[in-house]
Design goal:
- The chain is mainly α and 496 residues long.
- The chain folds into four domains: 4-85 and 247-324, Rossmann fold (3-Layer(aba) Sandwich); 90-243, Alpha-Beta Complex (Glutamyl-tRNA Synthetase, domain 3), CATH 3.90.800.10; 331-373, no CATH class; 381-494, Arc Repressor Mutant, subunit A (Orthogonal Bundle), CATH 1.10.10.350.
- 48% of the residues lie in helices and 7% in strands.
- The protein has a three-stranded antiparallel beta sheet with strand order 3-4-7. It has a two-stranded parallel sheet with strand order 1-2. Strands 5-6 form a two-stranded antiparallel sheet.
- Strand 1 (4-7), helix 1 (17-32) and strand 2 (36-39) form a beta-alpha-beta unit.
- Helix 15 (391-410) crosses helix 18 (452-464) and helix 18 packs parallel to helix 19.
- The longest helix is centred in the last third of the chain and has 23 residues, at 333-355.
- The structure holds glutamic acid.
Length: 496
C-alpha cells in the first residue's frame, strides 16, 4: 500500500499556523513511508471562502518548504483538488443520491424558522440541542415528489438510533466512543445543492486514495459520521488519527487574540521557515536523541506517527524566538544580509504611507520604524504622566486602558483597525468620562481623569515609548493588538 495523506484547509482568512502544523506531520509521515502528500482545498462554505485565501495557502506552504505532490496548483491524477470544482462535476450529489436510494439518507424540508423553534424548545426543556429527526418519518416517494416540484430541502444522514460507536485511535489509550443516540442526523447536502464538509471530505478522501487522515482532534466528534459514511458508501475507510490542537498558554485552542496565528505574520516578521518548522516539530514530536535543532529533511527521516504528542502542545513564542535565533545566527553572511534586506523592504513597504511625512532622508527610516517592530519599547516615566495627573493616576489609567482593550478584543468580531479603534475610544471616553447621577466624589474624580488629551497621550507613549508618532490610530493598528496591550502593561509597570 502506498501511503497517501492530505491536508484539507478551508480558505477563509489568512493561512493558519495550525495548517502548517498538521501539514508538517502529514508531510513527514509521507516522506518517512515513501508516500505522497496532497493538498486539497475545502471551499464548500461559499460565504466564507475566497480565492485570495487559497492563493495565500499555496504561497505559505511553498514558503515553508512543505511541498505537496498533488494539489490545485501542481495537478495530479486524482484531481481536481478544489472542492468547488468537484461540486461542478456532480461528484457529491451522486453520493447523496446513492444514500437516498439505499434508505441511508432522507430529505428534510424544515425551514430555518422550524429549526429555530425546535432548538428553543429543546433548550427550554433542558434537552440536548440536535435535529429531532421529524422529517425522517416522511414517505421517501412523497418527499422525492416535493423535491422534484422545487421545494427547498436538505439531505440528512440517517444515523443509527441505537448502539454505540467505538474507534481505536492509535494515539489514544482508550478507544473513542459515543452512543449513536447522541449523534445528529447530519446535513450532507445543503439546500443549494452543495455538500457539507462531512460528505465532501469522506467522498474525496476515498476518491483521492487517502490511506491515513492525520488531523486535529477538533474533528474527533465528527468521526462516527465519517466512519458511518464510509461504510454506507462502500468505501474502505482510511485510518483516522487525531493529534492535539495547538494551545494558548491558558490551554484554550490557539487563537489570534493570544498568539499570532497567521503564517503571513511570521513571514513578514522575518522568521525563517526552518525555525518555524523546527518549532512546530518539537510541539508535536521530538527528536529520538533529544536534539533540539533539526531540519525538515531530518524530521522526515525520523518521524514516527506513534510518538506524536497529543497532549495539546502549548504554543510558546519565546521558544520559537529561541530557535529562530539558533537558525538565524547560523546563516552564512550572504543569506543573513539577504534576510535583513528582506525585512527592511517589507517594513518600508508597510510603513511608508505612515512615515513619509516625517522623513527627510532614507537613513531616518530605521529610527522611525523602531516602535513598530521592536519587541519591547523603553518608556520614560516622566513622559508617561500627562499634565495635571500624578504618577498613580497615570498608572491607573494605563491599567484600565489595558483592561478595556483586552475586553474589547475578546468580543466576537472585534476589529483592530484604525477606524474601529477610533470609534471604540470615542465610546470609551464617553462611557468612562461621565460619572453616573448620584456618583460619589471619588467616582466623579475618577471620571474626570478620562480626558481625551490625557488618554490619547497615554496610549501613544504607552504603545510606542515616544511622544511624537504618526497619527495615533494608524499607529496602534500597525503595531498590533497583542503588542499594544503588552506595552501598556509595561508602561504601567514603569510607574510603580
Ligand atoms: N477543512 C477542514 C479544516 O479546515 C479539514 C478537516 C480534515 O482534515 O478532515 O480543518
Amino acid at each position: 500500500m502506498t501511503v497517501r495523506v492530505r491536508i484539507a484547509p478551508s480558505p477563509t482568512g489568512d493561512p493558519h499556523v495550525g495548517t502548517a502544523y498538521i501539514g508538517l506531520l502529514n508531510w513527514c509521515f509521507a516522506r518517512r513511508h515513501g508516500g505522497r502528500f496532497i493538498l486539497r482545498i475545502e471551499d464548500t462554505d461559499r460565504t466564507r471562502c475566497t480565492e485570495a485565501s487559497a492563493q495565500a495557502i499555496y504561497r505559505s506552504l511553498k514558503w515553508l518548504g512543505l511541498s505537496y505532490d498533488e494539489g490545485p496548483d501542481v495537478g495530479g491524477e486524482r484531481g481536481p483538488y478544489v472542492q468547488s470544482e468537484r461540486v461542478a462535476l456532480g461528484i457529491y450529489r451522486r453520493y447523496a443520491d446513492q444514500l437516498l436510494a439505499q434508505g441511508d439518507a432522507y430529505r428534510c424540508f424544515c425551514t430555518a424558522g422550524d429549526l429555530d423553534a425546535m432548538r428553543k424548545a429543546q433548550a427550554a426543556a433542558g434537552q440536548p440541542i440536535m435535529y429531532d429527526r421529524r422529517c425522517r418519518q416522511l414517505d421517501p416517494a412523497a418527499a422525492a415528489a416535493r423535491a422534484a416540484a422545487g421545494e427547498a430541502h436538505v439531505v440528512r444522514m440517517k444515523s443509527p438510533l441505537e448502539g454505540s460507536f467505538s474507534y481505536p485511535d492509535r494515539l489514544r489509550r482508550q478507544p473513542f466512543t459515543k452512543t449513536w443516540a447522541e449523534i445528529d442526523d447530519q446535513v450532507l447536502l445543503k439546500a443549494d445543492g452543495w455538500p457539507t464538509y462531512h460528505l465532501a471530505a469522506v467522498a474525496d478522501d476515498h476518491l483521492m486514495g487517502i490511506t491515513h487522515v492525520i488531523r486535529a482532534e477538533e474533528w474527533l466528534n465528527s468521526l462516527p459520521k465519517h466512519i458511518w459514511l464510509n461504510q454506507r458508501l462502500g468505501f474502505t475507510a482510511p485510518e483516522y488519527v487525531h493529534v492535539g490542537l495547538l494551545r494558548n498558554a491558558d490551554k484554550s485552542k490557539i487563537s489570534k487574540r493570544k498568539n499570532p496565528t497567521s503564517l503571513l505574520w511570521y513571514e513578514r516578521q522575518g522568521f525563517l521557515p526552518e525555525a518555524l518548522l523546527n518549532f512546530l516539530g518539537l510541539l508535536g514530536h521530538s527528536h529520538p536523541e533529544g536534539k533540539e535543532q533539526f531540519g525538515l529533511a531530518e524530521m522526515g527521516a525520523f518521524f514516527d506517527l506513534d510518538r506524536i504528542n497529543v497532549a495539546g502542545p502549548v504554543f510558546d513564542l519565546a521558544k520559537l524566538r529561541h530557535l529562530q535565533g539558533l537558525w538565524f545566527r547560523a546563516l552564512p553572511p550572504e543569506r543573513m544580509i539577504a534576510e535583513i534586506h528582506r525585512a527592511v523592504d517589507i517594513q518600508a513597504g508597510e510603513l511608508l504611507p505612515l512615515l513619509r511625512e516625517r522623513m527627510t532622508c532614507g537613513g531616518d527610516f530605521m529610527g522611525q520604524a523602531e516602535p513598530f517592530y521592536a519587541q519591547t519599547v523603553a518608556h520614560h516615566p516622566d513622559e508617561l504622566v500627562p499634565k495635571g495627573l500624578d504618577r498613580a493616576q497615570a498608572r491607573g489609567l494605563l491599567e484600565q486602558l489595558q483592561a478595556e482593550l483586552r475586553k474589547y478584543l475578546a468580543a466576537d468580531g472585534a476589529q483592530w483597525t484604525a477606524a474601529a479603534l477610533e470609534a471604540f475610544l470615542r465610546e470609551l471616553l464617553a462611557r468612562r468620562g461621565q460619572a453616573a447621577p448620584g456618583a460619589t466624589a471619588e467616582q466623579q474624580a475618577q471620571a474626570a481623569l478620562w480626558q481625551q488629551k490625557a488618554v490619547y497621550m497615554l496610549l501613544r507613549v504607552g504603545a510606542t515609548g515616544r511622544a511624537n508618532t504618526p497619527p495615533l490610530f494608524e499607529t496602534l493598528e500597525r503595531i498590533g493588538a497583542l503588542r499594544v496591550i503588552e506595552r501598556l502593561g509595561a508602561a504601567a509597570g514603569r510607574l510603580k
